[in-house]
Amino acid sequence: THERTAASGVCTRRTPLNASTNMRLKLPITCFILEIIIIILFGVLVQYDEGTDAKLWHDRNHSSHSDYDNDFYYRYPSFQDVHVMIFIGFGFLMTFLQRYGFSSVGFNFLIAAFALQWATLMQGFFHGMHGGKIHIGVESMINADFCTGSVLISFGAVLGKTSPVQLLLMAIFEVTLFAVNEFIVLSVLGAKDAGGSMTIHTFGAYFGLIVARVLYRPNLDKSKHRNSSVYHSDLFAMIGTLYLWMFWPSFNSAITAHGDDQHRTAMNTYYSLAACTLSSYAMSALTAHDGKLDMVHIQNAALAGGVAAGTAGEMMLTPFGSMIVGFVAGIISVLGFKYLSPVLESKLKIQDTCGVHNLHGMPGILGAIVGAIVAALATADVYGEGLTDVFPDVASGEISASDQGVRQIISLAVTLGIALLGGLIVGFILKLPIFGAPPDTICFEDSIYWEVRRSGNVMPLSQQHHGTTRRHTLIRPG
Amino acid sequence: THERTAASGVCTRRTPLNASTNMRLKLPITCFILEIIIIILFGVLVQYDEGTDAKLWHDRNHSSHSDYDNDFYYRYPSFQDVHVMIFIGFGFLMTFLQRYGFSSVGFNFLIAAFALQWATLMQGFFHGMHGGKIHIGVESMINADFCTGSVLISFGAVLGKTSPVQLLLMAIFEVTLFAVNEFIVLSVLGAKDAGGSMTIHTFGAYFGLIVARVLYRPNLDKSKHRNSSVYHSDLFAMIGTLYLWMFWPSFNSAITAHGDDQHRTAMNTYYSLAACTLSSYAMSALTAHDGKLDMVHIQNAALAGGVAAGTAGEMMLTPFGSMIVGFVAGIISVLGFKYLSPVLESKLKIQDTCGVHNLHGMPGILGAIVGAIVAALATADVYGEGLTDVFPDVASGEISASDQGVRQIISLAVTLGIALLGGLIVGFILKLPIFGAPPDTICFEDSIYWEVRRSGNVMPLSQQHHGTTRRHTLIRPG
Amino acid sequence: THERTAASGVCTRRTPLNASTNMRLKLPITCFILEIIIIILFGVLVQYDEGTDAKLWHDRNHSSHSDYDNDFYYRYPSFQDVHVMIFIGFGFLMTFLQRYGFSSVGFNFLIAAFALQWATLMQGFFHGMHGGKIHIGVESMINADFCTGSVLISFGAVLGKTSPVQLLLMAIFEVTLFAVNEFIVLSVLGAKDAGGSMTIHTFGAYFGLIVARVLYRPNLDKSKHRNSSVYHSDLFAMIGTLYLWMFWPSFNSAITAHGDDQHRTAMNTYYSLAACTLSSYAMSALTAHDGKLDMVHIQNAALAGGVAAGTAGEMMLTPFGSMIVGFVAGIISVLGFKYLSPVLESKLKIQDTCGVHNLHGMPGILGAIVGAIVAALATADVYGEGLTDVFPDVASGEISASDQGVRQIISLAVTLGIALLGGLIVGFILKLPIFGAPPDTICFEDSIYWEVRRSGNVMPLSQQHHGTTRRHTLIRPG
């Protein structure tokens, strides 16, 4: 029986029970406390906004033309696309590991479900307290998903080496710092970053990379046989890649101004991604000594065009400009996977499981710089009356376009500063031995946190069932 | 060759040919007769509604402002999300079984495609005969998908133990009874149930559970080695789970009133699901002796928050209230999987393959009760002019809010009654031996109804091909 | 070690290195040249249209009512559904092959990302030069995706037997010819074909079939052991099928006129597909000697109803008519897979890997004929003022309805002519030996173009790593 199973694709080695990784109390306590705190804070602080409150909407609606003015119809389809990116996109992108699919999808699910609630509160504190209350609707839902995306990027850097309790803790701090940074960048500094090249991608990537640095494991080689993909796990990962790729135009345009702004942002992103895909394939074949394409590049680098169009996408970047940005992003990203990541690991001791530096870090910085340049070049001649939507302070004459460009660059520096400092502190918190991190020998392994059924269909005779529904052949620690 | 194959993940044991399970004539006859009846009835009874008919729309549109008033733009994005839940969500959620993926996705596809046509007719009879004709458009399409969802819930209870012909028969009766119950609950009793906690989830679950009871198989243990998941089948099931989870806000809001109602319902459901996810993870770890998470709970219980917000979601439940509801639903659902399902099987002889009682049954009842309470607490002060959308009879002064609460509770009782009685009768019909149910020894097995290719890439020498496209290495009964 | 791996589902035979199939220079050069040409042409020729340009939109908007008039809100949700069909739908539909999943999804991704850019240019030349510039927005994005769909259909015919460079070349020519044919059919001849029964499906299928004919491989039997599916590859393919099926209503309605037209087209397609599903299941069981359903039929024939409703879907076909069309399409398609494809291969030497003749070819012609008939029967009595949207030339009195029917039939003939002639020429170009087609012995095999990781978790000792992130156990040619 054992040999049968061992030979059948999914490995079933016995996982030694480790008291510290046992989640029986740690995970429920963490989840329950967090959720109860959130519920209490929602009860005290959160209210429907004008578009979701029955009374307010109907009061306002007396003088308006149509239910269509409700922001729901402008943004909900975009929200759902973003939602799919967060849960399917990020979740399945990380299933490439052969023995970590449950955790990739499952922990992604858990921390995203937590983070979007926490983000509603944190972003509400900084963005929109109205008489002591946080007003929420579809726009806050999108913003909460955006903030969640940032946490999931950081998750990619530490994938396979952290317990769910560590991840929830990371999410608490990261969401909070995200909201602080977002407030400084967008509200204090007045920068534009609708698709989050800075606030989401750069922030999430460098935060996660520093956490990974602090959690460096010199003996991670002991788990290296699991730190790779198998055939079907790469196909599952492609589901994640493609949903991210397809819906990135919705992501970047989800909270831009109504009308031409949403429309233009989506289209710019679409062309940036298309160009990025061609340069990623080209570079993947070019950098392989035998010219064979590498799934790692396809799954990741082809998305860099979306990241890099995150800031400038809403501006008059033109499809021409978008394609150049995407084209360059794909090249940078593949080169990063091929030549930079090994150096980061060997020299800087940053073990970046998913290569988020190549997908979100460098392309995010590229996007921020492109955004600064395009902002600095903005003219009333090109934008017409639309300048008010994109650069309100420039349109009002308060600042010049080049001032706006400077704002953008300062915002990038601030974002990097907060991400690096925050990641450093949070990394040391996560390092405390009580949170159940897996030992070096059992990283990238689902069975340490999940009941993993045995592949094959032979059930041990010893297993006694008395009428349970949906029985499982479980692999229990020996 | 045989050993090779046997060792390769997917088992290829030979299935003995059983005359009664042979679908060569039974399935085509059933499908053809049903489809021809449907086509004739559509020809006689069905017409485009005002939004889909070229003449009617343009006549009406003369006096209106915009093509945007067409209900298509209000509801089609929601419809597509619901559509994905029906075909991908339910279909893949059931692929967790190691040898029943084709049937889970494939029979789901078949009965859904049938049920949505039949539902259009049955719901049309009861809801909207206009001068002897059924008028259809995007709202009837959503309602048809909703009714289909109910049938798919019941399918979950009998998964692996029924032939496609049995399932089509079940769908005929269940759709019909669904339409009757829906008519009584919504039109006669005047209850509100936009997301179907009662009419869809409670109805579908208890109908299916009683059918499963009548079809009880004392010797199902003979197939128990197939009644479990393997690693990749659990990942496929997570695709189903996540699509259901992500799009549930669209489901509950798909047919609520335009404007704030759709907006609020989507947001309430979003928060209910998020809270439910945290409590499901917590309970899954807490109830496992070694603290390991169980995929069964994650795949199912995390969705209970959507079910439980099905009735009250459109009301002024507040995000705070939604989170409490979701939080409780997740706890109840995991406890049900862990402690109640084994009792249902051993004591009540209900073999509930997917645990629909835990995902749809109990959370559906919870949702109905919550809906009754929130309805009874409704005040003009909170809803303002919006009261007309949510509780028209209360707004008009015809009844009091507490009367509305009573209506809701009566509706729950009626739903349970019709589901239980209907399921009992239909179960006995399905028990007739002519419909090709699988024998106890070959339940949960695709190869009884599907041509299943052999895993691995060795083709027997004996197999003669003469130019067929897309050749298969088939496993034929010996 | 080798035996372990060999026994584990995914085969890992060593692929002999073949100089001509090495893509190290060919693929990067092709991708870079094409992308740079596209970027230059976009820089010179392409501009934002009125809905995406900040200045133009705000100028126009002065006199209009709402940002809602922006075409983005009418079409973007449909666009995203179409986008999913192109990348997930087509991509995963072709993953049924046991050893060709990376190529199916990955080459689909590459050629689609290229084709949508090229199509923007080619369609722009013929459809909408405004003062020497191509104006683009969401409608051109949908049209580019449509054109891409046609290329992907042709890809299905040659799947497994062509290199990525060949596919890119095919895309260049096919997109160009598609734009020519589309211009003739829609603009010169004045035919209607919103869902592309003719311009997309018939064109793509017959173009691809002729290419496959020219690329005929008499010794393809040497790879026949890989030209089949395994259990999980069929489940991956079902993801593709279902997304195509669910979103086909959006596909057919994506560029029809606003209002009732989009609404009606979506609904007609919905019912056509539902009826088609039932007839496909019926025929699949009926044509199998043991009554077992065949995944090939379910994955493909059930979609024929969408193809066949592509032309008439926007007309007053009625749900009744739609169901008849879908019902017939499903029957034709299964019969084609069962009886016609083997003849095409043995007699006409057309090796149609995915059976596109059965899914797109015959149902496309059926759809064209149905469209001609329904057009010829159009009356002002039925369409009212809506006649202007659907048949503007008939509404204006310029031609009669039967003239419109004749236009439709001529358009079908033209489409077939251009597809067959174009495919013939392109086939001979692709036959040049320099493009790296795989040898007959290694068709349907990912490892010729992709780095394929070994299944199982044993890493050869010889492999030296120095700190690379995301290590792979690669199968390198011996």
From TrEMBL, chains A, B, C:
Highest rank taxon of the organism: Eukaryota
Transmembrane segments: 27-48, 82-102, 109-129, 141-160, 167-189, 195-216, 228-248, 320-340, 361-380, 409-430
Domain Ammonium transporter AmtB-like residue range list: 70-432
Membrane topology label: Multi-pass membrane protein
Keywords assigned: Ammonia transport, Cell membrane, Glycoprotein, Membrane, Transmembrane, Transmembrane helix, Transport
Keyword hit for Chloroplast: no
Keyword Protein biosynthesis: no
Family statement: Belongs to the ammonium transporter (TC 2.A.49) family. Rh subfamily.
Identification of the protein by name: Ammonium transporter Rh type B
Species this protein is from: Echeneis naucrates (Live sharksucker)
Organism ancestry: Eukaryota, Metazoa, Chordata, Craniata, Vertebrata
